[in-house]
Amino acid sequence: MPVQTSRRPHSPDPGAPSRVPPFIPTQPGPGGAGGGGRKRTKRKDPLWAKLTVIFGAVLMMTSGLAIVGSKAVIGQATSNIKQGNLIGDAGKSDAEGGNSLEGPIDMLLLGVDARASWDADDVRSDSIIILHIPASHDQAYLISIPRDTEAHIPAWSKGNWNGGVEKINAAFQIGARNNGGWEGGAQLMAKTIKSMTGISFDGAAIINFGGFKKIIDQLGTVRICVNHEVTSKHMSLVDGKPMWNADAKKTGKPRTPVVHKKGCREMEGWEALDFARQRYGLPNSDYDRQQNQQQLIKAMAKKATEKGMLTNPLKLNAMMKAAGESLMLDTGKAPMEDLIFTLKGLNGNDLVTLRTNGGTYATNASGREALNELSMEMFRAVKEDKLADFVVANPSVLSTRK
Length: 402
What we know:
The protein is of the alpha+beta class. It has helices at residues 47-55, 71-77, 170-176, 181-197, 212-219, 245-251, 269-277, 285-304, 313-326, 336-342, 373-383, 387-393, and strands spanning 82-83, 105-111, 127-133, 140-145, 150-153, 164-167, 203-207, 222-226, 230-238, 241-244, 256-260, 263-267, 327-330, 351-354. It has a seven-stranded mixed beta sheet, sandwiched between helices.
């Protein structure tokens, strides 16, 4: 039975100061340490596997421990995860079920590929994903919104923005201006998406894709399928060691391009992250990158559910530390442990990845990138909690990635 809980109020003023400082996660160098139907039988995955599905990241606790009313244990396991107000006034109202964890749950996931040296006020979110969990709480869907989608970004006084049309990824940068930080960026992005799709949110997460390297290193490897061979625009090999191109040039040594060849294989952290960053040289550019990033999230979830993972306490502690460095969360009006407990039935195999615009570019009358009618229907299905039926009727929205 889902847990019913009182949720914390959001700040009503978008220009109000953040409750926590802007979140600037570190990024290690690449070489460094449905609906109705017959009820399905699920295996009992450990707690840390369930958390992976919920937030698209690996938040591990312990191997073999099932969730049985132990919210205190969940709270302890997630205590190092940074929290903040990321959805602002784009949260669900009480009429939409915002005062309860019953019903569908919608989370906004923002991927920021940032370096520690970058200014927190000048970063765009190039990965924009909606995580939808239907009222049945037995499935989870990932839907990416293309970074260059034309959108009306609402007025935002703190960012000196009077409202207007821009690429949707600019919403994050505008919201982060003038010390708005990543909280302000996420709030304006959530407000923009709500205005465009009608979807209100139960919570949000900012994911530092660069920080995923540490998590994957703790997992060992992840299985990734490369559909199209692509040469990295960011990294080279020097004496067989992967390095950022700028650092590789400084060595003065011969450089070998990193080439991601077609086929399925186990990838180390640096390779998986580098592949997930590529868009130049791919047939559908950012659309292929969206699917590759969804694939990475799902691969991490699957690897986390493998039997016998993280039985070593030292490795477990390292995993928890890595997860904390890679995420900032807002669970809306619900305590994090209540939300996790409510979704205890999910596991990595319940994660379904979907694509907008058939996985390729669509333009509007002005020749600018836009969501086609089928994609807008998909978002309406999310809002009405009819996504499972929509996917059955429109299988073309399923991602082609493994």
